[in-house]
Amino acid sequence: MSSSSDRISGAFFCLFGLAMYFLVIPVYVETAEGGSLAPNTLPNIISIIIAVSGAFLVIKPTKHQMRDPRRMAITGFYVLLLIAGIYGMSKFGFEFVAPVLAFALMWMIGERRPLWLISGVVLMPALIWFVVTQLLGRGLP
């Protein structure tokens, strides 16, 4: 990766972090009464880290080389699969899409052991559902 592409991506993430901090989080994160932390605390911290990291990349670019295009395409496919999974969850619900998405991701990364597949496809989505909906009282898509 050339230093100019590092600087461009650094500038993008710096602006992205600042936009999240000043524009998105204040509009879309609700305030809550009580509690020890405000709901916007963690998103604000993460957006500041993203902006500062982008600024560092602009100031001091790396010396890394461009990755193999095949690996970049595989990464893009993972991202598209996750986007499709999130969209599917909004249409069909977490309970139906999460196990399928977990199986697809686990299979793609080469996991073939039955115990790990069962735990990743059945147990983890069930545990996430139980913790979020039953213990925390929040809704899943």
Description:
It contains five helices and no strands. It has helices spanning 3-28, 41-59, 69-92, 94-108, 114-135. The mean pLDDT is 92. It has 141 residues and is an all-alpha fold. The longest helix has 26 residues, at 3-28. The relative contact order is 0.10. The two termini are 38 Å apart. Helix 1 (3-28) runs antiparallel to helix 2.
Summarize the structure in short.
The protein has 141 residues and is mostly helical. The protein is 75% helix and 0% strand.
The total count of helices amounts to 5
What's the helix-strand series?
A: HHHHH
The percent of residues in helical segments reads over 70%
Overall pLDDT score? 92
Strand content: under 5%
Number of strands: 0
Q: Low-confidence parts, pLDDT < 50 over ≥5 residues?
A: none
Structural class: mainly alpha
**Termini, distance in Å?**
38 Å
Q: Can you tell me the overall shape?
A: flat
Taking all Cα atoms into account, the compactness measure Rg is 19 Å
Which sheet architecture does the biggest sheet show?
Answer: none
Task: Furnish the topology, listing elements before pairings.
Layout lengths: L2 H26 L12 H19 L9 H24 L1 H15 L5 H22 L6
Helix pairs in contact: 1-2, 3-4, 4-5
Key features?
5 helices; flat; mainly alpha; 141 residues
